[in-house]
Amino acid sequence: MAGMTLLRKVLPALGWAVALLLVGRLLLLVQGVPGLLWPTLLLRMAALAVIAPALVAEFWVALHLNVHLPTWLLVWALMLLYGRLWLAIRRLWETLDTPTHLGRRAFLAGTGVVAASSYGVVNSYPDPEITRLPLPLQDLPPGLAGLRVVLLSDLHRGPAINRAYLEQVVKKVNGLRPDLILLPGDFVSKSSAYFADVTAVLSKLRPTIASFATLGNHDHWEGAEAAQRALSRAGVLLLQNRSIHLTEDRRLTMAGARGLCLAGVDDLGAGQPDLVAALAGVSPRVPTILLSHNPDFAEQPSALKSGSRVDLQVSGHTHGGQVILPGIGPVVSGSHFGLKYLYGHVQGPRWPVFVTRGIGASVLPLRIGSPPEIVVFELSGQDDSSRLPEPG
Ligand SMILES: [Fe+2]
User: Fold this and answer.
1) CA-to-CA distance for 29 and 289, rounded, in angstroms?
2) Is 377 helix (H, G, I), strand (E, B) or coil?
3) Helix, strand or coil for residue 129?
4) How far is the centre of ligand 1, averaged over its atoms, from the C-alpha of 357 (Å)?
5) How far apart are CA 371 and CA 322, in angstroms?
6) In angstroms, what is the span from residue 286 Cα to ligand 1's centroid?
7) Rounded to whole angstroms, how far apart are CA atoms 145 and 270?
8) Nearest 5°: CA angle at 251, between 250 and 256?
9) 66 C-alpha to ligand 1 centroid (Å)
10) Cα of 318 to ligand 1 centre, how many Å?
């Protein structure tokens, strides 16, 4: 009973606080720069008094609801810009001697558009999509049929992608009950300090067999040795120009005559890929999956002249274009072969390649038309390994 009385007292105060914060938000939206454009000092001070707590409260909410901080800051920067722009339009409207009520309507409509677009930007970094694909491999022993192989690329822990988001991704991956996890690089962006989070996040992966990685260009830029240490501490096996063999009874060995080979090459752009070393001693009767961060590796001279067997190269790097503008297409592809290796199954000159959109983002924490992705291959031992379906 006492609790109900307290609630009755507290609720109206909370309602007023929320209303005040909303007014502060709206004022900033409309005015651009807090309070500076109001006609008298008293009004300026009053506007600022309402706006300031709104800003602080929203900052607190952004932090605690795991909104990406750079995105949030970008939204506020856009708000200021929109506010100034809108003021300029209003002034122009007034000089044209337009009836006031029409100006107000346009003003309110514009405010709505700005609010809606800012909401869109805040929510522009979506949850990863799950792409499920069958992967028929010639010579796959029956004991390995049904194996679930998760492909998870371009985590890009950094200013644009926070640790909590990646922990959610890892939970999703574990929910897929993976047997093998393939991580073809770009674990961080902008600073080697983020490798500690990479260790923390990846050590929560729970494959039934093991996780494997290669390095990407960003890992090299921030420190290949730090990247290797981070992966090793997380229990991830680095396939840096080397391979490992999975036997029919699902044990990892150095080589074998029957089973599955997992090989990896160093990054094409920033590392030193060595395909000969990566595939040394691998039997041509063993189906082989090759990890290479950069899909362009499939077109390199070492790949073209290789006589080794590769059933599928798995890559990331392109982010599927990351930002695909309507009528324009992807802003960048990250490939020297135009849009050929932007996303999905591609037939390379020597072997098929699958390029995933990956998880993270470069430069801006934005994904438009190219959502983050986790891929799950289910292996089977079908005879015709060339029939690789398009992702649906
Ligand atoms: Fe990347």
Assistant:
1) 52
2) strand
3) strand
4) 9
5) 8
6) 30
7) 35
8) 100
9) 22
10) 6
Which tokens in the block code for residue 376? Answer: 């799950």
Residues 6+ apart with CB under 8 A from 67: 61, 122
Beta carbons within 8 Å of 204's beta carbon, 6+ residues apart? 167, 170, 171, 174
| Single pTM value for the model | 0.70
CA distances from 93 to 33, 67, 90, 112 (A): 20, 37, 5, 18
- Half-sphere exposure (CA, 13 Å, Cβ side) for 145? 10
pLDDT truncated to tens, each residue of the chain (392 aa)?
566 666 666 666 666 666 666 666 666 655 554 445 556 777 777 777 777 777 777 666 655 554 555 556 666 666 666 566 666 666 666 666 555 545 555 555 555 555 544 444 444 578 999 999 999 999 999 999 999 999 999 999 998 899 999 999 999 999 999 999 999 999 999 899 999 999 999 999 999 999 999 999 999 999 999 999 999 999 999 999 999 999 999 999 999 999 999 999 999 999 999 999 999 999 999 999 999 999 999 999 999 999 999 999 999 999 999 988 777 778 777 899 989 999 999 999 999 999 999 999 987 788 888 999 999 999 999 764 444 555 54
Q: Is 342 helix (H, G, I), strand (E, B) or coil?
A: coil
Q: Residue 216: what residue type? A: G
Contacts (Cβ under 8 Å, ≥6 apart) of 319: 154, 334, 357, 358, 360, 361, 362, 367, 370
Q: What distance in angstroms lies between residue 152's CA and the mean position of ligand 1's atoms?
A: 11
